[in-house]
C-alpha cells in the first residue's frame, strides 16, 4: 500500500482539518488543567487558613483565661502581709493543676522559689532569677509566655506563663509562674490529637526559637523547624506573614501550608498538607481532561479522514464515469476509421476533463509549457521529499522495452522545488505520461 503523499489534496485537507481541531482541543485541555490546579489551590488554601485561624483564636482564648487567673492569684499573693502564708494560700487554690499540668511556682524578687504546687515536684528553693524571662518580668506590665525550655530541676520540656507580683505601691515583689509540661496532657492536646486531612498535620511553633510546641506528629514536639533559607515560605511565617503557600519541606515533600499568629504570644498556629493529597481532585480532573483530549484527537482524525474522503468521492467517481462514457461512445458509434478511437475532438475533451480532475486531486495549481517540457506547478512540492517523488516517477513512468522485454525506467522527468518537468515527445506519448504523473502525485 502506498504511503500518504503530501501533494495529495486529500492528504492536505485531512492534515489541515486534524491540525486545526487538535490544536483547539489541546489549548482547551491544557488551559482547563492549569486553571483547575490554580482554582483548587486557592479554594483549599482559603479553607486551610480559615481552619488554623479558628484554632488559633481558641488557643488565644485559653491562654487569656490562664493569664487572667495568674493575674488574680498574683494580686492576692502580693497583698499578703507575710510571705510565709504563700504556700498555704497557693495550695488552697482549686483547679490550678487542671490549667497548668506541671503546677504553679511563686518566686520572690530574686527569683528564688518560695512556694510550689504540686509539692511532690519539690521546687521550693530552686533559683530562677538567672533566666532571661525573669529579668524581663521586673519591668513588665503584662504576662510573659516563655519559649519552650527544659525546666529545672525536673528536666521536663515546659512553657511558662509568668505574671509579675507587685505590692500596693507597684514595686516588684516576685512572680507567679504557671508551668505546662509539653510531654503531658495539656491545653494544646486539641493539636496533638488532630490531623488535617489524612496526611496533614497541625502544629504550634514558637517563632522566636523555631521550636515546635505542639504537633499532630508528637515526634516534632521540642524539635527545631527548618533553618533559615531552607524553606522560604516558612521563613515568611517566622517573620510574621499570615497566609498560605506551597513549598518543598525540609523532608523533601511538597506541602501546602497556612500560618496565623496566636495573639501576642509569639507563637504560630500552622497547618501543613502534602500537595499529593491537597490537589488529588485537581490531578484526577487533569488526567480525565488529558484522556478526553487524546480520545477527541483520535476521533477527530478518523472523522476528518472520513469527511474528506466523502467530499472527494465525486471526483474519484468522475474519473471512472469519464472512462465509462468514453467506452460507451465507442461501443455505440464505433471507432474512428483513421484513429481507431472516438473522434479526436471528443478524445481531446475527455483528456482535458481527466487532466483537470487528476490535477485537482494531486494539488497541481496549473499546467503550462516551457520549451519542450510540460510544467506541473505545485507549491506542495516545496514541503515534501522531492528525491522520493523523483524515484516514484522514474519507476512509475517506466516502460517495457520492445526489444528484450526488459523494464526501462523513465529518466527524463525532473522534480523541481515547486514544479515537475515532463518532456513532450512527437508521438504523443506525453499524454499518457502526464496522466500517470498526475495519478502518482494524487496517491494519498
Could you characterize what this model shows?
The protein is an alpha+beta fold and 444 residues long. Helix content is 45%, strand content 21%. It is built from eleven helices and 18 strands. The strands form four sheets. Strands 1, 2, 3, 4, 5 and 6 form a six-stranded antiparallel sheet that branches. Helix 8 runs antiparallel to helix 9. The chain is rod-shaped, with a radius of gyration of 46 Å.
Topology:
Elements: H1 9-78, H2 86-92, H3 96-99, E1 104-108, E2 113-117, H4 132-137, E3 144-145, E4 149-150, E5 157-166, E6 172-181, H5 189-192, E7 195-196, E8 200-206, E9 211-215, H6 232-238, E10 243-248, E11 254-262, E12 267-274, H7 275-278, H8 280-333, H9 344-362, E13 366-370, E14 373-377, H10 386-396, E15 399-400, E16 407-408, E17 414-415, E18 419-423, H11 430-442
Antiparallel strand pairs: 1-2, 1-6, 3-5, 4-5, 5-6, 7-8, 8-9, 8-12, 10-11, 11-12, 13-14, 14-18, 15-16, 17-18
